[in-house]
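Session log. Operator J.P. requested a structure for one protein chain; no other inputs attached. Running the standard single-chain path with token output.
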Amino acid sequence: MSTTIFDDPLVAAAVRKWLNERSGAFPFPLVSAETASIGRSNVTLFLTDAMGSRLVLRHPPLSSGLATAHDVLREARILKALAETSVLVPTIRAECDDPDVAPVPFYLMDFVDGVVLDSPLDTHALTLTDRQALTREVPRTLARIHNLDPSKIGLDGLGRSRDYAKRQLFRWTSQWQWPEDDATSWRFKMCHDQLEDREIADTATSRIVHGDYRIGNLIVLNGRVQSVLDWELAALGDPIADLAYLLNNWVEPTDEDRGPLVSATLAGGFGSRRQVLEAYEDAIGYTVDRSALSFYRALSYWRTASIRSGVFRRMFQSSDPLDRARADEFHRTVPLLIDEALKILNRKQEEIDS
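Structure written below.
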């Protein structure tokens, strides 16, 4: 079964022709297409031309789950709007939604030098100075996103701007894919009900919410953020939701072994979650409401459980043995994510304020 548009020889030929016809925009002809990532997100391919120049092509999974999470042309539109701001993103070169070229839409963007820190193994070349610098730079970059006025850069049409928590609860309840008679589904529903009972109004002016902002979705070099990637879940809403997600994914070496989330920060040498929060507050210019942050951290764990339930189902039903083997890890982490959400919801107020 094909996993990228270059796996089918006829489609690959049509895409190459389409790319070569646009040689005025970039130095082609294309000589290779290397898969960078396939799976939970959109498919990312590194393209290399005859002169050794590299570009990046993104397209949705050929067999996808949540359609709105794989709208690559929407993602390209967001990147083009952000290119005129202080937020560093790759430059978009071309977009295609012609079904005569490929069965799915795709876009082409510049290759950005640096590394993506998706796991602790990716940090081997980072110095302690780099790690400490990223503890400051990652939240500062998030603050730059949240300081943007969507209406001034043409992104006020990303969706509804109010009731972000309510919209998240509705959306991810509908995306839950787990056997109804399983205890995990019961706990998922219980967690939803507690979140709904404590549902808060938007705590800040509606801003662009990245939706998947973590260190593994950044290109970094020498302790600096070079580019912010993976905007497919971006929406308008409460920026504290992004901060909460970042903190959940800023996993510390002192956290419990084999927790539900893996991050490059587990390698050690990075600052603490508290330092990340303080760097964000310093950059954004106000103190974040701790109760709201606690609520959104619980919502974030619960939401991630819903997302992973769908990933597990797709992998478990896949004909690829590697996918089925990876499904076990998602099966393990879904209930742990719900547990983390419930732990936060059951904290006492003094623990939240500390």
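Operator note: The mean pLDDT is 90.
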